[in-house]
Design a protein that fits this description.
The structure is a single chain. Helices cover about 40% and strands about 20% of the residues. By secondary structure, the chain is an alpha+beta fold. An eight-stranded mixed β-sheet has the order 5-6-9-1-10-11-12-13. The structure holds adenosine-5'-diphosphate and magnesium ion. The site of adenosine-5'-diphosphate has 14 residues, from strand 1, strand 9 and strand 10.
């Protein structure tokens, strides 16, 4: 009873540089195995690593975005372990002097009553390092293949404080971090391809007690798996302790098929790695000018954008949050507002509800939307100037999605122009009234329900094109006599 979990996450985030962190070999995903493995990647004798300046810039960008101190001087260290996908026998990483120091990330959590609560998760540090290669167990009977294309891809490892208390908080933190690195343009965020992966450190304690022994579950590569892995691990640890057992500090592996974690190996201690400064690489010095230039180039971050959308466009927090969820979506929305001149709220409804709903259905996203921002703006203009009704607009939008052309040509082709000329509407109403004297008498005698009948007839007389507001108003006047 009264158990509490303590969770700290280590996130490996691939930096989207074109070439590797210490050599000119390409980093693109999906190439033929070992075609992107040069001498440095292969760890040949006599080769020397040279730091990729773009990787450094991206790491600094991250540090500034989480309000962290960026080290004026940082050092690369060799971390030794033996594994077939690591030809040098050591990984170049950072140990005592990482590039990014303490920072923080604010997360939002459901309060269970339809609102949100806020929590701040501390970031301990972030350091630069090189990725390892991949072992391929499929397609090799009785043997393992090694693909070194990924070896040497730049990573930042982002270490959180043990501030997280539930699996839901862990997922909220990861999603926030994921959104941030994608916004910053430093990571493509592709979790299936391993661009953003997470190790979950979990321990449990009775409330008020000191931290318990933790396990580390490795390389969980989806938000849902992280949640499941942590929930499983919390439950398992509670059961072990309640059963009189002890948690051992170990590395575990999550199995998505069973939803369970399994012991992989006893955790190494830092001294097992024999860290020491890499003599092949000079310490890195970031001058205040260098850092200031990167700070000046930071894009508007999601929080700031969301506040601006609420303020400048009068959007609800919910709509604003949806629209800033990616930089591309936010840019699309702003382009629609600008090009249409329509009410920002109307634009928000169309983008956040109609467009996203439709894209979801056809399995596209905003970058591949068949309806461009300009095209949608063309439609919104015609709603704003009352050329078409709300229903007409939906019909036009469907046709635009199907590639039938721009809003104006579809409106014309389908004859959807609304009649807003009141004299034309009055004329139709008068004809309908003249044709239905019986109903008119009943209506005037108090049978209010017949109003709907007259609306229907008058709409029919205008082929459904009358502006509904005007029609209702004028009909009421005429029926009153
Ligand atoms: P290592 O280098 O061995 O991985 P670190 O000190 O870097 O260890 O910590 C790794 C992660 O473990 C951090 O995210 C930290 O917040 C988390 N952590 C540390 N102690 C605990 C604990 N008792 N329970 C859960 N997580 C913890
Ligand atoms: Mg670690």
């Amino acid at each position: 009873m009264n158990w509490e979990a303590v969770i700290g996450l280590e996130v490996h985030c691939q930096l989207q540089t074109k070439s590797k962190i210490f050599s000119g070999a390409a980093t693109a995903y999906g190439a033929e195995p070992n075609t992107q493995a040069d001498g440095v990647t292969l760890g040949f004798p006599g080769v020397l690593p040279v730091l990729n300046g773009e990787a450094l810039r991206m790491a600094v960008t991250f540090g500034l975005a989480v309000g962290a101190e960026v080290a004026e001087r940082c050092v690369f260290a060799r971390k030794h372990y033996f594994y077939p996908d690591l030809p040098k026998g050591y990984q170049i990483s950072q140990y005592e002097l990482p590039i990014v120091g303490k920072g923080k990330l604010d997360i939002e959590l459901d309060d269970g009553r339809g609102g949100v609560t806020h929590k701040t998760i501390g970031i301990t540090r972030a350091h630069m390092e090189e990725d390892a290669g991949k072992s391929l167990h499929e397609n090799f009977s009785g043997a393992t293949g090694i693909d070194l294309n990924r070896a040497g891809t730049p990573l930042i490892e982002i270490v959180s404080e043990p501030d997280i208390r539930t699996a839901q908080e862990a997922v909220a933190y990861l999603k926030k971090l994921h959104q941030l690195v994608v916004y910053l343009g430093i990571c493509d965020g592709n979790m299936q391809e391993g661009s953003f992966r997470c190790d979950a450190n979990v321990s449990v304690r009775r409330k008020g007690e000191p931290f318990g022994t933790r396990t580390e579950t490795k390389n969980v590569n989806s938000f849902r798996y992280v949640e499941k892995a942590i929930e499983y691990e919390i439950q398992r640890q509670i059961e072990v302790i309640e059963g009189g057992g002890k948690i051992i500090q170990e590395t575990r592996l999550f199995n998505p098929d069973t939803g369970e974690t399994k012991s992989m190996r006893v955790k190494e201690d830092a001294n097992d790695y024999r860290y020491f400064p890499d003599p092949d690489l000079l310490p890195i010095v970031c001058t205040p000018e260098y850092i200031a230039a990167i700070r000046a180039s930071l894009p508007e971050l999601p929080e700031a954008k969301r506040a601006r959308f609420e303020r400048d466009y009068g959007l609800s927090p919910y709509d604003a949050k949806t629209l800033v969820s990616s930089r591309e979506l936010a840019a699309y929305y702003e382009a629609v507002v600008k090009a249409s001149g329509a009410e920002p709220k109307l634009c928000a409804n169309w983008v956040a509800t109609n467009l996203l709903g439709a894209l979801n259905k056809i399995g596209q996203d905003i970058d591949t939307s068949p309806v461009s921002a300009d095209a949608l703006a063309g439609l919104l203009k015609r709603i704003a100037d009352k050329t078409i009704s709300g229903n007409g607009a939906k019909e036009v939008f469907e046709a635009m999605l199907a590639g039938e052309g721009d809003a104006d040509s579809i409106i014309k082709a389908k004859g959807l122009v609304q009649i807003t000329d009141e004299s034309a509407i009055v004329k139709a109403i008068e004809e309908v009234i003249a044709k239905n004297p019986g109903q008119l008498a009943e209506y005037r005698a108090g049978k209010d329900k017949l109003f709907g009948f007259f609306v229907g007839q008058a709409m029919k007389a205008t082929q459904g094109k009358a502006n509904p507001d005007a029609l209702n108003r004028l009909l009421k006047e005429k029926l009153a006599g």
